[in-house]
Amino acid sequence: MSIEDEILNYLAAERFPDGAPKDLTNDYDLIDSGTIDSRLMVGLIVLLERQYSIQFGSNDIVPRNFRSINALAAFVRSQTGGQ
Amino acid sequence: MKLNLADKFFERALQHPDAPLIFGPEPNVAATYSEFAATVRVLAEKLIHAGVRQGDNIGLLYPSGRDYIALVYAAWTCGACVTPLPIDLTAHEKRQIFQFIHIDGVIADSRIISHLDGLIHPGGIAVAGHAVYAKGLPSCEAPPQLADVNAGFIRFTSGTTGSAKGVVLSHESIYERIHAANQVLNIGPADRIMWVLSMDYHFTVSIVAYMTFGAAIVLPRNSFGITLIETAARHSATIIYASPTHYKLMVQDDSGAALADSLRLTIVTTSSLKSDIAAAFHQRFGQVLNEAYGIIELGLPAINASNRADKQGSVGRILPDYELRLLREPGEPHGEITLRGKGMLDAYYFPWKSRNTMLQETGGWFRTGDLGKLDDDGYLYIVGRVKEMISVAGMKFFPDEVESVLESHPAIRAACVFGMQERLWGEACVAHLELRDAGTAPSEDELRAHCKRFLAEHKIPRRFQVVERLKYTASGKKLRNAAQLIEN
Questions:
Q1: In this predicted model, what pLDDT tens digit does every residue of B338-383 receive, in sequence order?
Q2: How far is CA A28 from the centre of its chain?
Q3: Residue in A41, A43, A55 nearest the CB of B222
């Protein structure tokens, strides 16, 4: 499963259990739309750290890395050497 | 007439109807005391129509936020007691709560109510927004002594002190605690408190205090450092109530944004504060972080509101309504913290143990299990937090629970789980494993999958390490001290 799909599945299960918005694409703005709240932030970090053996430093937890599914996936790739 | 905290809120709303109560989390959304009181009354009516009765114990499965607060107060308005069903727990863990705590009905977010399948009647009644009410299916019986307590909250714990499960707090105890804490916090109508923690774990000496003393609550949209700083500034927050992680995120923000000049207290709870975060916060924002000592059984018996940089690292002096006694071994500078004072828990729920019985057993003092020391000015320093409790991003749990899951795996003879300081989330959970057959170690993936069936994400060990033999103390208990385990 791609990193993007992993994140999408997590968001769908945790944030939109009764159906994700139709425009929830990899570019969907997760912050301005209010999709990411404090609880989901922690959940995403725990999931990605565990799944990809990376570690978020506190200066990585910034809006630009969480703006969209693509941004999160790009961050993960930058930490895993693009794997 | 029995005290009801909802009545105290309604009194406040009557006296100061136009005072702001909640800002956010959505931008430009706010509610005054009278608006929120009206919301609570409507919700209470709906709950009564749905079947909630005085004396019921209502499980609450709902995300933190304004609706959460309204639902708790609505349940109290009905004369019911509330037991949070923390949203981050797995279905297995939620089920465990029903095994020990009698739940008459549940208010849940309809989108996640399936977590409770088999525990409640299917087909809940819509109450408001996503909130639905469903009757509980027959489970365990409530202890008969519960009827003698004017219970407002039952907080399920997986065993703070041995096997006890569930801390029962009456309206009177909560009311005493918030007044005890307010001798130092001095919260009043001029205050705006920015709130970022989970309401499942923090509510009684915080949210209830704000609503009783006429303050406003500011809810940010998320926990990015920049969001927290900007939200506090936009709403002229006077107090921030957060975990060390949140303060670290604020420090790491590189936008140069400043906090509000109005800020007078930055309360830190949930886990011990590292000195580097405190120093960086002071340097960046010119504010000393105020550590507080929170114990579910007692409330907030110590708060360091001194704003003295030389007392950073202390949880402050013991509040006037509490007394402290350190149980010191001869020659030791520190000892176990024991306390007595106002607002102590009314009882442990299972097995039922009343406050009086408990205090008779311990000579009138509550033993916290924490180690502390005092300086010459009477400031208390926590040397070791609750001995074995693990706190990941402010979510606390005990190793026994994780160990029993690991030990249910066929390849594992015994497990020892402990917390290790980690740079961001406070502690990470680590597991040492003793195998049944040294040649057949399960993979980490397999162990994680096994844990995931029973445990919330934050409780799953980050590291698994196979050891030849677990270490035990002289008295035969598992040694769970990270420093000793890692050194050896």
A1: 999 999 999 999 999 999 999 999 899 998 888 889 999 999 998 7
A2: 11
A3: A41
The verdict on B456 and B475 lying in the same domain is yes
Average pLDDT, chain B: 89
Strand partners, B151: B170
Q: What is the pLDDT of residues B136-180, one digit of tens each?
A: 998 899 999 999 999 999 999 764 444 557 999 999 999 999 999
Please state, in angstroms and as integers, the Cα–Cα distance from residue B92 to each residue in B95, B307, B405, B452, following that order: 5, 43, 11, 10
Q: Are residues B177 and B312 in the same domain?
A: yes
Task: Let me know whether B240 and B319 are in one domain.
Answer: yes
Residue B86 lies in a domain: yes
CATH homologous superfamily, domain A3-13+26-79: ACP-like (1.10.1200.10)
Structure tokens at B485: 């385990």
* Residue B110 placed within a domain: yes
Q: Which helix (H) or strand (E) holds B303?
A: strand B299-303
Identify which of B25, B111, B462 has the shortest CB distance to residue A17. Answer: B111
Q: Which residues of B touch A11 (CB under 8 A)?
A: none
Other Cβ atoms less than 10 A from the Cβ of A83: the count is 8
Note whether B140 and B184 are same-domain residues.
no
d(C-alpha B451, C-alpha B443), whole Å: 12
Q: Do A50 and B457 touch (CB under 8 A)?
A: yes
Cβ of residue A66 closer than 8 Å to a chain B Cβ: yes
Interface confidence, given as ipTM, is 0.84
User: Could you report the per-residue pLDDT of B414-462, keeping only the tens digit for each?
Assistant: 899 988 877 566 678 899 999 888 778 899 999 999 999 999 888 899 8
Contacts of A18 in chain B (CB under 8 A): 110-111
Asked if A55's CB is within 8 angstroms of B223's CB, the reply is no
Are A38 and B223 within 8 A, CB to CB?
A: yes
Question: Is B161 inside a domain boundary?
Answer: no
CA distances from B277 to B251, B268, B273, B424 (A): 8, 11, 7, 10
The residue among B4 and B29 whose pLDDT is bigger is B4
Structure confidence at residue B404 as a pLDDT band (50, 70, 90): confident
My answer on whether B116 and B189 are in the same domain is no
Q: Domain check: are B180 and B105 in the same one?
A: no
Task: For residues B112 and B246, state if they share a domain.
Answer: no
d(CA B444, CA B157): 28
Q: Hey, is the C-beta of A59 within 8 angstroms of any chain B C-beta?
A: yes
**B475 and B373 share one domain:** no
For an interface test with A, which of B109, B195, B223 has the most A Cβ atoms less than 10 Å from its Cβ? B223
Task: Work out the pLDDT band at B313, boundaries 50, 70, 90.
Answer: confident
The pLDDT of residue B159: 46
Would you give the end-to-end CA distance of chain B in angstroms?
Answer: 60
As for how many domains chain B has, the answer is 3
CB contact under 8 Å between A18 and B88, yes or no, is no
* Residue A63 near chain B (CB below 8 Å): yes
Give the range of the structural domain holding residue B95, as residue numbers without chain letter: 5-16+28-149
